[in-house]
From TrEMBL:
The keyword Coiled coil applies. It comes from Quercus lobata (Valley oak). Keywords: Coiled coil. Residues 61-88 form a coiled coil. It holds the Pfam family DUF247. InterPro entries: DUF247_pln. This is Uncharacterized protein.
Amino acid sequence: MFESSKQQFSTRGLISIPDHLRKLDEQAFTPLLISIGPIHCSNPKLQTMKKCKVQFCECFIQRANIKLRNLVHTIRDKEEEIRSYYAETVVSSISNDDFMKMNLVDGMFILEFLIQSYLIRGGDDPTIRIPKWMHPILQFDLVLLENQLPFFVLEMLFKQANFPTELGSKDSEPLSLMKLAFYFCACYRVQMMPPWIFDTQIEHLTDLVRFFYVCGKQQHRGPGGAKLSYSATQLHEAGVKFKVAPEEYGGHYRHFLDIRFDLKNGVLEIPCIELNNEKIRLIRNIIALEQSHYVGAAYVTDFFIILDILINTSKDVDLLCDKGILVNYLGDSNAAALAVNNLNNTILWDYMNSDYLKICEDLNAFYIEPWHKWKATSMLWRQYFSTPWIATSTCAAIILLVFTAIQTIAPEGLNTGFAITLYAYRGQVAMHSHVNCIFKSPLLLLGQRHCDSQLE
C-alpha cells in the first residue's frame, strides 16, 4: 500500500507547469497546431488537426500490421497509471472511454510522426504528405511539457507493432523507439545517444530532450548560487578570451551544457547556442520541468543562469555573436538579451552545478588579478578619453554634474561674494572673482547670481 502511494505521489502532476512560470509567458507553454493528452484537448484552436491525427493513426495500423482491439486492451490495462501523470483536476472529468481513445489516437499519431520524420531524414518519401511549414511547428508542439503522453504509453504501442524488417534497413541495428526519438530530437542539436539511455526511465518527450542535453551525466551540485560578478564584456575587457566549444573533445561529443574555463590561459569555452523563438519556448519548458521535478538536478537551468549573468546588455550579445557562441535569430541584440534575462525570472537556485561554481570563482579571480583589473580599467579610459572631443565632452559632463550638486546642497550664502571657478590658462588653475567668471557666458548660466543675469 505504501509503495503504491509513493509511486502515485511521485508521478501525480508530472506533466504540468508551475503557475508562477506560466504567468511569465503563457504562449511558451501552449501548442500552436496540435493537442496531445488531456490538458489542451478542449482548446478550440487545435481542433482542426483531428482529421490529420486520424490519417496518421490509419497509416500506423497498416504499417504496424496490428489489430486495433489489441491496442485498446493495452491502453485500458494501464489507464490508472496513465491518469496519475496528470493533475486530478485535469483528468477527473474525462470518462474512461474518452481517456482511452485520446491516449490511443495521440500515441499512434506520435509514433507515426516519428517514423515519417525518420524516413524523411533518410531520403524516403513520407506516406502522408503535410505542408512543409507544418512539420517544424508539429515538432515543437510535441516537446511542450503540457502536451505530452507518458513515454511508457508509446513504448507499449510500439512493442505491439510488427514492422517490416526493411523499415530500419538503412542502419545496421534494428529500428527501436529510442532510435526514432533520437532522430526526432536531432533538430534540437542533439548529437549523440549514450548507451545508458536504454537503462534510464524517460517520462515523456520533453524529459527525453532534457536527457539528451544533460547527456545523462550526473554532475555534483553544491550549495549556493553562481557568484559570477562580471558580464561577458567586462570579462573580455579584462582579457578573457571567449571561444565556441568544439563539438568533439578527445574523440567524444561534448554535451550541450559543457562549459570550460582555462584559468592559466584565460580561455572560456561555451557551446554554440541558437536563439530563436522555438528554442526559447523549448528552454522555458525544460526549465519548468526541472523546477517542478528535477529541483536537485536542474542542470539546464544552471546553464542558462550562467548565460543570464554573462549577458546584461546588447554589447554582451554582440560579443558572444562575434565569437560564434550565440547565433541570434531574434532580431536585434536587445531582443536577444531580454529573452535570455527573462528565462530565469522567479527561478530559485540555491544549488548550482559544482563545475559552474568553480568556473565562476576562477573568472572572478582572473578579473580581480591586478594586471587584468588594470587592463579592464584602461579600456574604460580609452572609451571615454580616446579623442580630444570625447575627452572634452566627458570633462564637461563631470563639471556640470559637480556644479549642479554644489548648487543643490550648498547654503544660499555660498552663492554670493566670490564664486570658486576653474579657469585653465597656461596649465594653471586660478581663482577669479564673480565678475570675471568664465561661466557667465551667452551659452551657460550656473548659480543663483548667474540666473539673475540677463542674456545679451
